[in-house]
Amino acid sequence: MGILIPAWVDDRLVPVDKLEAHEKGLKHKAVSVFAVRDMDILIQRRALGKYHTPGLWANTCCTHPDWDESASTCAVRRLREELGITGLYPEYRHRLEYHADVGNGMVENEVVDVFLAHVRGPLQVVPNPDEVMEIRWIGYHDLLAEVQRYPERFTPWLKIYLHHHADTIFGPDLIISAKA
Q1: Of 24, 31, 102, 172, which residue is the least packed, with the fewest Cβ within 10 Å?
Q2: Where is the signal peptide, in residue numbers?
Q3: Which of 110, 131, 134, 152 is catalytic?
Q4: pTM of structure
Q5: Is pLDDT of 180 > 50?
Q6: Is residue 28 marked as binding?
Q7: Is 74 labeled as ligand-binding?
């Protein structure tokens, strides 16, 4: 058995193998983080070895909490594990649910706690090559335009976040300021 994540089975939250949750499309908990510096968002391109959505661009980091782990602890852990980022403490922004086919017979059926981390000052990013093949900073509206033009290059969840939840994730300050 692999990593156990919190998933709902028969309306009860129980530990379930992460791969099984995706194969069966079970509703499960997830965590997503966006790191923002001024008007730019740090995005990552998922490693080619990932079992779903390899090579696609996603938000700064995303994962599933371990069975006994809080969402905020998970957010900090995954910033460190995926990107080598330490000393950044994301703030909780929003809980959302989505359902998306992610290829290879896998389904994301997630209840996601979304966090926003404001980067002030230098940030050392050292991507874990097992998780991330590339990173870049991109302006909010440039990201929207790129997703519109090349949707096949982005994960389903990033497109859902940007198109349906941007106001609650980023707040009006980033969205309005980015237009100026």
Answers
A1: 172
A2: none
A3: 110
A4: 0.92
A5: no
A6: yes
A7: no
